[in-house]
Amino acid sequence: MAQINDRLAGRYVDVHAHFTPPSTEEERLRVWQAMLGKGIYFPEPHEWSLERTLAYMDASGTAMQMLSNIPSRLAGLRASNDYGASLVAEHPSRFGLLAALPTDDPSAAIDEAVRAREELDADGFAVTTKYNGVYLGDDSLTPLWELLDGWGAAVFVHPDARLPPTLDHPAPLYEVAFDTARTVFDMIFRKTFSRHPNITFVIAHCGGAFPALTGRLRLLGNESWVPQGVTAQDIDEQTSSLYVDTAATAFAHSLLPAMATVGAGHIVYGSDWGAPCTTESSAESNRSSLLQCGALSLEEEGGVRARALDLFPRAAQRLTGAEPLSEEFVR
Predict the structure, then answer these.
(1) Nearest to 174, CA basis, from 185, 184, 159
(2) Three-state SS letters, the chain
(3) How far apart are CA 306 and CA 28, in angstroms?
(4) Pair 103, 140: CB distance under 8 Å
(5) What is the phi-psi region of residue 223: left when phi exceeds 0, alpha when psi lies from -120 to 50, beta otherwise?
(6) What mean pLDDT do residues 175-183 have?
(7) Residues 93, 23: Cα–Cα separation, whole Å
(8) What would the pLDDT profile of 25-81 be if each residue is shown by its tens digit?
(9) Contact, 3 vs 54, CB < 8 A?
(10) CA 217 to chain centre
């Protein structure tokens, strides 16, 4: 990775970036109205823009984004994966694809994983913590995890942002963090991570609430009143294998628990670019805080910037063979 790191000095590889396929004004209005109905008051319908994305990447010094989008229906999910693959084909040194998997249907998820690997040249996979009511720890998903384990795949885990509001607060504000923690802890109890050690799981938003709650789980997880308990040692072994990203969480409040749980060497850069709740301003505030918040040393922060390429070797190869990065990139 030395060659790549030399080329990326001061630049970022973003593991947590979203896209949406082209849509009609009517479709965007329908999605916007659904969000309003869930208490998410965006001022206007959201439309992802390739041009705006590339402009932000250049302005922020982002060399590459790993793109993900997980529609709630199979036909839309497959079409989205196709569009994501076309973006990578057109801009191979700027984007990677994390192909979405429909984890409410293990057979369909396996079929889509194979298609994404063999036909779309996907760099990895993206899953939702709870997809159409099915959590990632569900036993029915064992054949999918076994397949991905055999491939040594990287899997990006994102919370379900389509949840209804909690206490009149929109789900993306904080409920997604608890949804993430529930899923991770359930997978720990079910030994999902230890049974599939060759999968690299990357948990969004610095792991949500799970790092801060891991100490409680270590203390109480094997008490007599806990069915099928889990020991502190097993918790440590499983959580230390996980990676987390910095999307909307590049602050000491989130980074320090993550460092205590997964280690600074398992933190990767994420911006949450492309999500309706992310603006240039919020993305830049998060990025600048990565070093300024004081949680990471200069060396640790430098490792976070491009570590994602260790997890996605095919994307790293594309970046290595690309033209030199623009000197217009700024830190």
Answers:
(1) 159
(2) CHHHHHHCCCCEEEEEEECCCCCCHHHHHHHHHHHHHCCCCCCCCCCCCHHHHHHHHHHHCEEEEEEECCCCCHHHHHHHHHHHHHHHHHCCCCEEEEEECCCCCHHHHHHHHHHHHHCCCCCEEEEECEECCEECCCHHHHHHHHHHHHHCCEEEEECCCCCCCECCECCCCCHHHHHHHHHHHHHHHCCHHHHCCCCEEEECHHHCCHHHHHHHHHHHCCCCCCCCCCCHHHHHHHHCCCEEECCCCCCHHHHHHHHHHCCHHHEECCCCECCCCCCHHHHHHHHHHHHHCCCCCHHHHHHHHHCHHHHCHHHHHHHHCCCCCCCCCCC
(3) 34
(4) no
(5) beta
(6) 97
(7) 25
(8) 888 888 878 877 777 777 788 889 999 999 999 999 999 999 999 999 999 999 999
(9) no
(10) 23
CA distance 238 to 221: 14
Question: What's at 244, amino acid-wise?
Answer: V
Per-residue pLDDT reduced to its tens digit, 90-117 = 999 999 999 999 999 999 999 999 999 9
pLDDT tens across 208-243, in order?
Answer: 999 999 999 999 999 999 998 999 999 999 999 999
Q: Which of these, 141, 117, 66, 69, lies nearest to 318 by C-alpha position?
A: 66
CA distance 314 to 22: 26
268 close to 202: Cβ distance less than 8 angstroms: yes
Query: Rounded mean pLDDT of 274-301?
Result: 94
- The model's pLDDT over 246-271, given as tens digits with 9 standing for 90+, comes to 999 999 999 999 999 999 999 999 99
- Residues 148-173 have a mean pLDDT of 92
Token couple for 31: 């999605």
Nearest to 13 by CA among 22, 4, 21, 26: 4
Give the amino acid at 119: E
The pair of structure tokens assigned to 223 is 């008490």
> How many angstroms separate the Cα of 178 from the Cα of each of 102, 156, 189, 278, 315?
21, 17, 16, 20, 31
